[in-house]
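Colleagues,

For the teaching module next term, I've prepared a clean inverse folding example: a structure given as tokens, and then the sequence designed for it. I'd like students to try predicting residues themselves before seeing the answer, so please don't circulate the second half yet.
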């Protein structure tokens, strides 16, 4: 079982991966943008309020608009 810090790191990574996927999807998965997508996703996830967990995670409003996800 992961410790609390390890769990937090893993949760952050999953959230970034999901956001990066949606950014890549939005640009049609064109080659050459994966690093830019990941860095943009990191900024978005790091801007979330403290305490947002994976089970309650909703993409930030700007990302929802970008990816067209309905909430």
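(Answer key — instructors only)
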């Amino acid at each position: 079982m992961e410790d609390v810090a390890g769990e937090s790191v893993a949760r952050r990574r999953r959230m970034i991966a999901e956001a990066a996927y949606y950014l890549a999807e939005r640009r049609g998965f064109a080659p050459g943008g994966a690093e830019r997508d990941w860095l943009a996703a990191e900024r978005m996830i790091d801007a979330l309020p403290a305490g947002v967990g994976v089970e309650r995670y909703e993409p930030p409003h700007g990302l929802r608009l970008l990816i067209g996800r309905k909430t």
